[in-house]
């Protein structure tokens, strides 16, 4: 079984820690390792390093190789330019399928937190065995919702197919995108929906064939790339062909038109969180609602429901009589905002290109 970890995001919502030159997945958001390193740690030793692949933009080649020296050089897939995730998945699956099209492959992401690692590993082992028996199957891994989120997509689960190793496998009834508050509450109450993590296991060849059927532009250009894979002119050809590839999300390109009989779902509470924003990080790390979450040199007096991260070892942050704040201190920028104003922060950062503040992006 193989695993591909995708690490190409930009991470604007974790500014000022996450920057264009070093996005969130390469930063130490939780503990003393980057979320990318933590994603790899969750796989070993069940996976050999030779069975773990990393997909990211060529701009981050030096960073990923430095952070993951154990991963063989041929296991890094570098996109020559930024596209949406569908072309990246097609390239990874195409390359892996050249060796064994029936090989089970787990598709995972680099910027997530998983607290229940033993259960996660157990699920991966089960999904791998299911795909090994039936390579023409996609097994989604969903998380039981902890609350009615409007910021996440959902997977609609049907009746139970079977139970193995105390884990239920359900019929796949489709994807539901970020719902409004009323619909999210209905999903949560029904217990028929799981959070869509973007995690699934299938065979490399089966996914690549789906591209052939549903996304011919991506498939044809990827096929031409694969014909030159490993050759002297590969990088030059990759750059040209990848430039012709349609930029589209994997859900839009493939999963929206997925035949339901080709998929099934496992829904468990693996303690998953998308730590792609400071608010999400606080929700993931707080032990109880409205608890403070801090990192670095921080002293608080009468502070409630705030996240305060200090990445400057030469300074201390002292907070007094505060509530519902996000405070992030780095060497060259400080963010201070109300929790519910983070959407405005993203718009401000996106206005920096072409201004005197561009170096802070």
From TrEMBL:
GO terms for MF: mannose-1-phosphate guanylyltransferase (GTP) activity
The name this protein goes by in its record: Nucleotidyl transferase domain-containing protein
InterPro entries assigned to the protein according to its UniProt record, in alphabetical order: Mannose-6P_isomerase_type2, NTP_transferase_dom, Nucleotide-diphossugar_trans
Alphabetized Pfam families for the sequence: NTP_transferase
Origin species: Candidatus Roizmanbacteria bacterium CG22_combo_CG10-13_8_21_14_all_34_12
Parts forming coiled coils: none
Domain Nucleotidyl transferase, chain residue ranges per copy: 2-287
Gene3D superfamilies the UniProt entry points to: Spore Coat Polysaccharide Biosynthesis Protein SpsA, Chain A
One GO process term, biological-process aspect: GDP-mannose biosynthetic process
